[in-house]
Amino acid sequence: MRLELRGITKRFGTFTANDGIDMVVEPGEIHAILGENGAGKSTLMNTLYGLYEPDAGQIVIDGEPVVFSGPGDAMRAGIGMVHQHFMLVPVFTVAENVVLGQEPVGKGLIDLRRARQIVRETSEMLGFAIDPDAKIEDLPVGVQQRVEIVKALSRNAKLLILDEPTAVLTPQETDELIEIMRRLAAAGTSILFITHKLREIRAVSDSITIIRLGKVVGSATPSATESELASLMVGRSVSLGVAKEPAQPREDVLEVRNLVVRDTHGVPVVNDVSFTVASGEILAVAGVQGNGQTELTEAILGIQKPASGSVVLRGESLEGKGVRERLDSGLAYVPEDRSTDGVVGEFSIVENLVLDRIGAAPVSRGGALDMRFLRRNADELVKEFDVRTTSVDRAVGTLSGGNQQKVVLARELSRPLSLLVASQPTRGVDVGSIEFLHDRIVSERDKGAAVVIVSTELDEVLALGDRIAVMCGGELVGIVPGGESRDVLGLMMTGIGPEEARQRAAEHHTLLGEADLEAEAEAGAVLDAPAADAVDAPATESSTTRSATTTSAGEENR
Amino acid sequence: MSTPKEPLGPTPAQDPLEPVEPQSAADDEIGTTATGQPARTPGFGETYLREVLSSSWLLTLLAIVLAVLLGGVLIIATDPAVQEAAGYLFARPSSFFTAAWEAASQAYLALFQGAIYDSQAATFTRAIRPITETLTIATPLILAGLSVGLAFRAGLFNIGGQGQVILGAVLATWIGFGLDLPPVVHLVLALIGGAVGGAFWAAIAGVLKARTGAHEVIVTIMLNNVAAYLVLWVVTTQIFAGGTSGTSKPVGENARLPALLPEPFRLHLGFVLALVLAAVVWWLMERSTLGFKLRAVGSNARAARTAGISVGAMTVLAMAIAGGLAGLAGASQVLGTEGYLTASVAGTIGFDAITVALLGRSKPLGTVLAGLLFGALAAGGRLMQTRTGTPLDLVLVLQSFIVLFIAAPPLVRTIWRLPKPGARREKPSPTSTTPVTAGADA
Question: Region entry Disordered: which residue ranges (chain B) (predicted)?
């Protein structure tokens, strides 16, 4: 299918989300749309998928202008979409999900045999196998994503929209996805690939359209360098790496000893995890989402009760201490999901910025809030953290996700802290601000805080971690030095120990791993400023000896 | 409106530009944490009520206007004179319309006169009596309305106003006749007794919710029944039973809320107390640490917990404070208006209070205004019935219409052709320090 967008404009009230977007996707092309959060990518895709009606402009398919009044129309016209949040019914089987909405019917009943056949045929065409009778909830995310792709293709999609498809995948899984995308493209299916990750884009796409502030600001080919793409996307030059000095770890601040957390069914979700984090260093915890990282951080905060083991802060066991006491003893905590755990959406920015400091001076005196302090605090932090808002009195729920995240980080970093535990600290934040937030986290480290960063984004793990712990299935697979290769980490995320992962990684580079190597080479050549790897290198050396001991400790636990 | 059809993806309340957040953890979806505590995700009812309560004041006003118009239609339809005129509608349409206008305008005039100022009354005293009646009736409605509103802002549906009013009344009465104390001291003690009675009754629901997760709606409704039968029994006991059957001994003079005006006015200090408490509740919710915590728990319990606020403690406290306010409503009835306890002391105060809080958007000022409106409707309805023969029930119908329209904001919006909320999106203007990327994260 040849898709052409002509001057697509979409306004929400006075706000123009898409402003005269023109672009062409050729048949069999993998076309990437690159843009920051809030640049208008999702709006454009929702317009294309018939969820929004454009205020101006035309969608032209194979030379014919079309008008969609709903996703049904878009599907009939051959457009399929794999949403970032999968639209699958967890308790249904693969086959049931795939045919949902257009069930093959025989004798008044759903023809499940035919449904299974559809699943088998489509997945074979794509070069993988899925059990049509497996329940969605039992499948790993990577496979669920394939079910979504099968679902779209079984509806004869000739153009497939993939919205941030790699957000939940390991590098190895990403490789497999890229393989599927290439097969599809070779068979003539056009693919629109939406992302804000520069490295993937260069690895997979044929052509790139960059969107900023609702407008097309340029197009590029995969041969463009990452920094070229980044500056187009952000509108100014950004440094992609974190400029940080090697860690100078001092005394241990946090010690987690043989920690076990069980879920409601008694299944261990954190299984015998031990590690230490010292003042002045960042431990990055990598892993696919849902492998115990959340429970680990919640056990440190005290909202999860460990079944056994202990958390020790500055030599003092935290057992029996409530959240309040832990926060008061210098713990700063950035939850993984800001909207449910980090902010109160209906509260103003002013109020959210003191949410976990309430009840003590200077926020409140004698049971009353010090409104003047609250306001001054908000004015200062909004400015310092560049929270984009018309007023500090605006409800936080009306801010964009990135700005909400800044509010959470501003709050947590605005008080003296000895331990920072941050999950997905920059999720949803624009590239320009990620740089700033990473710098802030590093400066907390340099001021002597112990820092634990939990992130599913390997880019972030690599940028921040002085040491990297990898979790899989609730267990600590191992702790490796900060400069470890993406391939090794990716394999460890599937539960393979560090030694074996290194061997295997040496045998086979993933596309992203190769892209890393290329980027390093580029960074050395193009950028004057030292890039991530150049800075990371000494850090790696200094922590090698440390990690040798911790790695073996990690393995002992298993 | 730029989107004529409902987008399937982002809900209208959601920022249209907000990219869908990548939250893919399985544990997120299940919605329970591993310790087995159910994650408090607001259900449909809760989010719906929240929307209802957060819609604009204008909408409230328009809902009242609509209710009055619709009430007018009912008055006209049921008026005998109009029915007669309708018989020769085509012969003499003018007399039909005259009759219709007469019926509606007279009824509403009587309603107004019965509620605010009776211009037809013989004496000045009788002319201004209606407004004092309105204030008297409004007093317990305001107090109990504050109770429901406060609990709601702490995330709790306090349906138990009725039971809390009764318990407050019982305890206040008991202290009122059972003790013999000097003035002021006796009254203060009786009022405290009323508050404690209500607080105790509500705290039962609070503790059960915090400890076992029992839903406060069910518990408070059941406690209402317990209280209703409890008071039936209490007034017959040796300790309480007074001269007339079904009433208690009268409250001692020193424990009575003093009248604000001489006889025959019934208005008493309880009304001032209600206004003062409205101000106190405002301060508590908006300016105090405790109110901040209560609102945080009410609005997002998970975030509150993560921020070190004890959700259980706040639940119990919110219920206790709410119960105390409702208990004071009961105390104000026995110590002020009535002077003794009857089984029907609570009337329908506890239930009307829910409506009052709903109409008042759970805010103290709104609750006061809504309480006054309901007081006025109740007071005016009586005169309307005697003067124009329009049944008192019309007042209930009016109240119901108001609530109905308030519960259906889209309906009112459609009738008055108002824009949808969120259609006009505030564009974040850059307060940024980096001019180049201004608005990039819009």
Answer: 1-42, 422-442
* Window 367-426 of B, Cβ < 8 Å to A: 423-426
Q: Which domains does chain A have, with CATH numbers?
A: 1-78+158-222 (3.40.50.300), 88-154 (no CATH), 331-415 (3.40.50.300)
Concatenate the DSSP letters of all residues of A80-106 into one string: EEE-SS----TTSBHHHHHHTTS--EE
Structure tokens at B365: 């000022």
Tens of pLDDT, residue by residue over A344-380, are: 999 999 999 999 988 887 888 888 999 999 999 999 9
**Alpha-carbon span B172 to A240, nearest angstrom:** 70
Nearest alpha-carbon partner for B287 in A350, A471, A461: A350
> B34: which chain A residues are within 8 Å (Cβ-Cβ)?
261-264, 269, 295, 304
Q: In the numeric block, which tokens belong to residue A260?
A: 């076990």
B-chain CB neighbours of A71 within 8 Å are 8
Give A98's contacts (C-beta < 8 A, 6+ positions apart): A115, A118, A119, A122, A132, A147, A150, A151, A154
Of B16, B22, B426, which is closest to A164 when you measure between CB atoms? Answer: B22
Nearest to B160 by CA among B200, B108, B194, B189: B200
B109-147 pLDDT, tens digit each: 999 999 999 888 889 988 999 999 999 999 999 999 999
Tokens of B208: 């059960």
Selecting from A38, A46, A290 the residue whose C-beta is nearest the C-beta of B27 gives A290
- Say if B4 is an interface residue toward chain A (CB within 8 Å): yes
3-state SS class at A182: helix
Q: Is B1 on the interface with A (CB under 8 A)?
A: no
Q: Which of these ranges, A394-398, A428-432, B331-335, has the smallest mean pLDDT?
A: A428-432
Whether A347 has its CB under 8 Å from any CB of chain B: the answer is yes
**B114 to each of A86, B73, B110, how far by Cα in Å?**
61, 21, 6
CA distances to A4, A397, B12, B260, B426 from B429, rounded to whole Å, are 33, 17, 22, 53, 9
Instruction: Nearest chain A residue to B7 by CA: give it.
Output: A51
Q: How close is the nearest chain A Cα to the Cα of B285, in Å?
A: 10
- Strand locations in A240-379 (E): 252-262, 268-278, 282-286, 308-313, 316-317, 331-334, 364-365, 368-369
Residues β-bridged to residue A261:
A270
Please name which of A324, A333, A355, A322 lies closest in space to residue A254, comparing C-alpha atoms: A333
| Total CB pairs under 8 A between chain A and B | 240
Closest Cα to residue B160, out of B221, B231, B229? B221
The secondary element (H helix, E strand) that includes residue A419 is: strand A419-423
Is it true that the peptide bond before B364 is cis, omega within 30 degrees of 0? no
Query: Chain B contact for A71, CB < 8 A?
Result: yes
CA B157 to chain A, closest CA, distance in angstroms equals: 18
* A4-30 pLDDT tens trace: 999 999 888 777 888 889 999 999 999
Listing DSSP states for B236-302 in one string gives TSTTTB-SSTTBBPPPPGGGSPPBSS-TT---BTHHHHHHHHHHHHHHHHHHBHHHHHHHHHHH-HH
Q: In this structure, what is the dihedral angle of CA atoms B286, B291, B296, B298, given to the nearest 10 degrees?
A: -110
Q: Cβ(B140)–Cβ(B333) under 8 Å?
A: yes
Quote the longest CA-to-CA distance of chain B: 84
Chain A nearest CA to B243, separation (Å)? 48
Question: A51 touching B, CB under 8 A?
Answer: yes
How many alpha carbons fall within 13 Å on the CB side of residue A214? 19
CA–CA gap between residue A1 and residue A206 (Å, rounded)? 16
Q: Residue ranges of chain B with pLDDT lower than 70? A: 1-56, 419-442
On whether any CB of chain A is under 8 Å from the CB of B16, the answer is yes
A200 with A5: CB under 8 angstroms?
Answer: no
Max intra-chain CA distance, chain A: 74
